[in-house]
Write a structure and sequence with these properties.
Strand content: 35-45%
Largest sheet: 9 strands, antiparallel
CATH class: Mainly Beta
CATH topology: Beta-galactosidase, Chain A, domain 5
Low-confidence stretches: 1-22
Strand order of the largest sheet: 11-12-13-14-29-23-22-17-20
Helix content: under 10%
Radius of gyration: 21 Å
Bound molecules: beta-D-galactopyranose
C-alpha cells in the first residue's frame, strides 16, 4: 500500500516538474534601446530541427536556423547581433513587423468617411511601413511566451494610441508566432479599433536559404502563385491597374531562377524585384490559406513555402541592401536576400472600391485577422 502511495506522489511531483520544465522558453537580454527599454530574445525550438529567435522590439524574427537536405543547419534570416544594430540606419526592417500600414501610401494621404488624413512622408513623397519614430518596427511590444500541444511560441501585443503616426483610432494588436513541429513559423495577426482606420500588418523577414550573408539570391528558384501584379509609377505607387504577369520578368508561375531576368528591371523605378503580386485565390474562402510562393535553394536543398489568407504578396529582392555588416560578422550585399511580405495591396487606402482591390479599412466592432505561414523543408 505504502509503495502505491509513494508512486502516486512521485508521479504527481514528476509530472508537475516535467510540465513546468516544458513550459520554460529560454529568454536572454538583447540590449537596451536608446530610450532605455530592455529588449529580450526568446529561443523557440521545434522537434523538426527549426530554431527561431524572436525579440520584443518590433516583434521581430532575429534568426531562423533550419536544416538542409543533409541535416546541416544554417541561419537563413538577416539580422543583427544586438538591438543597437536594429536602431542603426543600416536596418531595413530586418525581420520586424511593419505597420500600421505596411508598404506605401501615396503622398501619405488618404480619406476615410469623408475625412482627410495626413501621415508622415518618410519615403520621398510617400508614407512607407507606418512612418517614422513610432512605426511598429520600433515599438517594444509586450511579450507572452507559451507552449501548447508540444509547440512553442510568443504572443506580442501592443495598443497604438489614437493619432499615433497620424492614424486614427486606438488600435489593439496581437501578433502570435508559433513554431510548429512541421518546421513552420505561423504568424497570426489580430487587431481591433475604436475608430475607423486603415491597416496592413506584415512581417519583413529577409531570407537567403543558403544562409544569411551568402552573396546572392540569383540562383534561388521562385514560384509565385500570381497571374497579375500591381504596376507602379516612378515613386513605387500603384497605378491602380491589375496587369498580367505574362510576357514580363514578373512571370514566376513556373519555377524560375531569380537572377534569370532581374537585370531587365534594374533600370525601372523598382530597381529590380519590388512588386506586389495579386495572388490567385481561385474561389478560396475568406481566411483560407493558399500558397503564395515557393522559394528553393537548389544547392542546399532548403525550401520555403509561403501560405496566406491575404490577397497579395510583396516580393522584394533586396535592391537596397548595400553591404552593411550583419550578424556574426557577415555582410549583406545588394540583392543577397529577399522578402515575401503577405499583405493587402500597396496604397489600398486610395483605391478602395475599385474592381479587384481589397478592403483595408477596419471599423469598431470588427476584427482584423491575417495568417502567414513560412514553412521550411528540403528538396533533393
Ligand atoms: C520593402 C519595400 C522596398 C523597400 C524595403 C525597405 O518592403 O517594398 O521598396 O522600401 O521594404 O528597404
Amino acid at each position: 500500500m505504502l509503495r502505491v502511495i509513494n508512486l502516486v506522489v512521485f508521479t504527481a511531483a514528476f509530472s508537475t516538474i516535467a510540465h513546468r520544465a516544458a513550459a520554460v522558453i529560454p529568454v536572454e537580454g538583447f540590449g537596451q534601446t536608446k530610450d532605455g527599454s530592455q529588449v529580450k530574445l526568446w529561443t523557440l525550438n521545434s522537434k523538426g530541427g527549426l530554431t527561431v529567435r524572436l525579440m520584443n522590439r518590433g516583434a521581430a524574427i532575429v534568426s531562423i536556423e533550419v536544416p538542409d537536405r543533409d541535416g546541416k543547419k544554417a541561419d537563413v534570416a538577416l539580422g543583427f547581433d544586438d538591438v543597437a544594430g536594429y536602431e542603426s540606419p543600416d536596418n531595413q526592417y530586418f525581420g520586424t513587423i511593419v505597420g500600421r500600414y505596411g508598404n506605401r501610401i501615396a503622398g501619405g494621404k488618404f480619406q476615410l468617411d469623408g475625412k482627410q488624413y495626413q501621415l508622415f512622408t518618410n519615403d520621398g513623397p510617400n508614407h512607407l511601413h507606418g512612418g517614422d519614430g513610432r512605426s511598429l518596427d520600433k515599438i517594444v511590444w509586450q511579450a507572452e511566451p507559451f507552449e501548447s500541444g508540444g509547440q512553442q511560441g510568443v504572443t506580442f501585443s501592443y495598443t497604438s494610441p489614437d493619432g499615433e503616426e497620424g492614424y486614427p483610432g486606438n488600435l489593439k494588436m496581437t501578433v502570435k508566432y508559433t513554431v510548429s513541429n512541421k518546421n513552420e513559423i505561423r504568424i497570426e495577426y489580430a487587431a481591433t479599433t475604436d475608430k475607423p482606420t486603415v491597416l496592413n500588418l506584415t512581417n519583413h523577414a529577409y531570407f537567403n536559404l543558403a544562409g544569411h550573408g551568402s552573396p546572392t539570391i540569383n540562383e534561388h528558384v521562385l514560384r509565385l502563385n500570381a497571374d497579375r501584379y500591381t504596376p507602379v509609377d516612378e515613386t513605387l505607387i500603384p497605378t491602380g491597374e491589375l496587369a498580367p504577369v505574362a510576357d514580363t520578368p514578373l512571370d514566376f508561375r513556373q519555377p524560375t531562377a531569380i537572377g534569370k531576368r532581374v537585370d531587365e528591371l534594374t533600370a525601372t523605378s523598382a530597381k529590380g524585384y519590388d512588386h506586389n503580386f495579386v495572388l490567385n485565390r481561385d474561389g478560396a474562402a475568406a481566411g483560407e490559406l493558399v500558397e503564395a510562393a515557393v522559394l528553393v535553394d537548389p544547392k542546399s536543398g532548403r525550401t520555403l513555402t509561403v501560405l496566406t489568407d491575404q490577397p497579395g504578396v510583396q516580393f522584394y529582392g533586396g535592391n537596397f541592401l548595400k553591404g552593411q555588416a550583419g550578424k556574426q560578422g557577415k555582410t549583406y550585399a545588394h540583392r543577397s536576400a529577399c522578402c515575401l511580405e503577405t499583405q493587402v495591396f500597396p496604397d489600398s487606402p486610395n483605391n478602395q472600391g475599385k474592381e479587384g482591390w481589397p478592403n483595408c479599412v477596419l471599423r469598431p466592432g470588427e476584427t482584423y485577422k491575417h495568417t502567414c505561414v513560412y514553412a521550411f523543408g528540403t528538396a533533393r
